[in-house]
Amino acid sequence: MRGAGDPLTVGERIAFYRRRRGLAQSTLAGLVGRSEDWLSKIERGERDINRLDVLMEVARALRVSLGDLLGEPVLLEDDQKNDDVPAIRDALMTPHRLSKTLFGPSISPEYVDPKPVAHWTEAAWMDYQGGQIGRVVAVLPRLVKVAQQMESADVDDAYRRQAAAVSARIHHLGATTLSKIGEADLAWIAAERAMHAADMADDPLVLASAARSGTHALLATGRFEDALELGNAAARYLARRMRTGDPSALSLYGMLHLRAAVAAARHHERATTNDLLNKAEDAATALGHDANYWQTGFGPGNVRLHRLSASLDLGDIGFVVDHGSDVDTDGLPVERQVTHLIDLARAFSLLAKDQDALQVLLSAERKSPQLLRHSAIAREVVRTLYRRAPVTGGKKSSLLLALAERCRAVSES
């Protein structure tokens, strides 16, 4: 069911998995505390599931992942055909990672200088933030392999800590990128590797940064409570070790609260969400401006965007529509700008302001075609717009049809 080019709606996927499990509509509806009429309308496309926590309940009842119901793509291409996710999988899942006892004697570790690898890694991070996901996919296999080489080299404690810090950044990038393109299971492997390397680095900032990768992977799989727990634990850990006024620590501390706030909002915990957003705002005020320490893009503007995103998940759609266009995002990374535009388009769609939603999606696509076209949420919004669009002269809107085909939200004509 999963894969690029899958034109099914969420409701159609629910019906598919329900039938595959041999469940009647009444049975599945009962498992999630809803009426049979509600589920029937969802499956027929007459209404949408607007809350991710409700969709997660359905996924659990069907014993599938959140990604299975969202239809997240597993293939990614750009103009250079950078679509080699299998190469990332091979690099992450090499058997040599499983046991030093079994494979150690057969490996000849070679010294790798961590400094140029660190520069290479940060360049890839900038590509990610700039929306150039294909470039990141292209370099990740080599980066992961180099990280493994550094970790296997037995030099001295200082080298091991430096190599582990770089490895944590590489695997963090891998987890974040893989979450973005729908490879949630691989993202979890990368996040676990990032956290393990960060432990070895013995640096509070490295560990706090790596924890963000864990929240990304957990959010991608719908494990909102676990993401909230991890974000809060990492923020508490960092708070005890922060130097007063350190902009890097402030940025990571604030960003961990923002990630935890996203998890709380998706779990529909309004009071917790507001408390976490307020803590992040305090950190942003202390920082004083939007910056990009440790590739966080953190600052007052990013907090405002997260308030809007949380409002969307909490069901405050009108607030998002009224204020979503007022936030100045020019100083933020392209990735963050596009994520905000997708949220805004979703809000417009939920209020049936379809022309507004379409224009926002086209604006997001101009900023980063790859981020827009490989977003499961954006694809679902496009499907909804396409389903509701009037037919004039036997055809749908040419702009909408073209976007739907580029996003692979409908079958190409």
Question: Can you describe this structure?
Answer:
With 413 residues, this protein is an all-alpha fold. The chain has 4 domains: 10-69, 434 Repressor (Amino-terminal Domain), CATH 1.10.260.40; 80-200, no CATH class; 222-314; 326-413. Helix content is 69%, strand content 0%. It has helices at residues 10-20, 25-31, 36-44, 52-62, 66-70, 85-92, 100-103, 114-129, 133-152, 157-180, 184-201, 204-220, 224-239, 247-266, 270-287, 300-314, 317-323, 334-350, 354-367, 369-373, 376-388, 398-406. The longest helix is centred in the middle third of the chain and has 24 residues, at 157-180. The two termini are 21 Å apart.
Strand content: under 5%
- Ends distance: 21 Å
Count of helical regions: 22
Radius of gyration: 22 Å
Backbone structural class: mainly alpha
Mean of residue pLDDT values: 88
Spans where pLDDT lies below 50 across 5 or more residues? 1-5
- One letter per element, helices H and strands E, the order comes to HHHHHHHHHHHHHHHHHHHHHH
Overall number of structural domains = 4
Helix content: 55-70%
Tally of DSSP β-strands: 0
Coarse morphology: globular
Largest sheet: none
